[in-house]
């Protein structure tokens, strides 16, 4: 949760810089730092309160102003699509592909360079996402993402169902023994109160993943890898053992 809030606060600071026409070079001169140090400070989100306050002073802002800007941006952003919007996206696999790309901060030229899709087709698909208010397509085919940091597909909605039905077998077709892979399966007997605590921790972990993804969007495209994490929890008994339960009808 802290990582997520930090990423949102730095995002608000970047928007304030852009609004006032200020650059990393301006900050470097104001703070008597190298421009490389400032870029690293933003990309790694290594801001002390003193540094954050200094940059705000340069912009004529208080840190509280930055928090208010962050909250206002969050309120305006899209946190979930309607059922009809998800149905429209899932009905066109190319549109779904583009939606996933923009949520992962891909630029227009990266999409067309990586996939077999000409500029005209990509532009038309992005226009559809613009109409759905997921993005704003700016001059020069620049993509401004309009979704909130907590954006998610609808619970048990068309897109979530699509991924469950079409992709789960492909996702789990791995031994999860490579360097950047991990599979952890745990089970136990938990009280309802403990289940609620663990669920909150899973949700917090998901927010931290989103914050890391947002921060890494500043890195070169070649330094980022498509990564999928599935966090799931349910009350479940493996069907294989059901035959041993008393009264199940098996002997």
Structure overview:
The chain is mainly alpha-helical. The protein has a domain at 2-76: 434 Repressor (Amino-terminal Domain) (Orthogonal Bundle), CATH 1.10.260. It has 11 helices and 2 strands; from the N terminus they run αααααααααββαα. It has helices at residues 2-19, 24-31, 35-44, 49-58, 63-76, 83-90, 93-103, 108-114, 119-131, 158-171, 192-216; strands at residues 135-138, 142-145. The protein has a two-stranded antiparallel sheet. A hairpin with a 3-residue loop joins β1 and β2. α2 (24-31) packs across α3 (35-44) and α7 packs across α9. The protein is globular.
How is this structure best summarized?
This protein is mostly helical. It contains eleven helices and two strands; from the N terminus they run αααααααααββαα. The chain has a domain at 2-76: 434 Repressor (Amino-terminal Domain), CATH 1.10.260.
SSE layout:
Elements: H1 2-19, H2 24-31, H3 35-44, H4 49-58, H5 63-76, H6 83-90, H7 93-103, H8 108-114, H9 119-131, E1 135-138, E2 142-145, H10 158-171, H11 192-216
Antiparallel strand pairs: 1-2
Helix pairs in contact: 1-5, 1-11, 2-3, 7-9
Shape: globular
Low-confidence stretches: none
Pattern of helices and strands: HHHHHHHHHEEHH
For the termini, the CA-CA separation is 50 Å
Strand arrangement across the biggest beta sheet = 1-2
**Count of DSSP strands:** 2
Beta-strand proportion: under 5%
Helix content: 40-55%
The pLDDT mean sits at 85
Structural class of the helix and strand makeup?
Answer: mainly alpha
Q: Compute the gyration radius: what is it?
A: 22 Å
What kind of sheet is the major sheet? 2 strands, antiparallel
Give the CATH topology of the domain at 2-76: 434 Repressor (Amino-terminal Domain)
Question: Count of helical segments?
Answer: 11
Query: What is the CATH class of the domain at 2-76?
Result: Mainly Alpha
Question: From the 3D coordinates, which CATH architecture of the domain at 2-76 would you assign?
Answer: Orthogonal Bundle
CATH superfamily of the domain at 2-76: lambda repressor-like DNA-binding domains
């Amino acid at each position: 949760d802290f990582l997520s809030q930090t990423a949102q606060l730095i995002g608000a600071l970047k928007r304030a810089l852009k609004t006032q026409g200020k650059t990393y070079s301006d900050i470097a001169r104001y703070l008597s730092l190298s421009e490389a140090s400032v870029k690293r400070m933003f990309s790694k989100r290594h801001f002390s309160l003193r540094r954050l306050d200094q940059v705000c002073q340069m912009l004529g802002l208080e840190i509280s102003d930055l928090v208010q800007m962050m909250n206002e941006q969050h309120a305006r952003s899209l946190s979930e699509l309607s059922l009809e919007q998800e149905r429209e996206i899932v009905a066109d696999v190319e549109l779904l592909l583009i939606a996933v790309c923009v949520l992962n901060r891909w630029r227009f030229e990266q999409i067309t360079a990586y996939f077999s899709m000409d500029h005209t087709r990509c532009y038309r698909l992005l226009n559809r996402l613009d109409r759905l208010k997921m993005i704003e397509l700016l001059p020069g085919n620049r993509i401004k993402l309009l979704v909130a940091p907590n954006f998610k597909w609808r619970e048990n909605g068309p897109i979530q169902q699509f991924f469950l039905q079409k992709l789960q077998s492909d996702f789990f077709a791995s031994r999860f023994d490579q360097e950047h892979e991990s599979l952890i399966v745990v089970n136990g007997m938990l009280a309802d109160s403990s289940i609620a605590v663990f669920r909150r921790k899973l949700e917090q972990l998901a927010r931290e993943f989103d914050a890391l993804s947002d921060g890494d969007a500043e890195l070169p495209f070649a330094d980022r890898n498509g990564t999928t994490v599935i966090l799931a929890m349910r009350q479940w008994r493996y069907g294989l053992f059901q035959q041993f339960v008393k009264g199940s009808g098996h002997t």
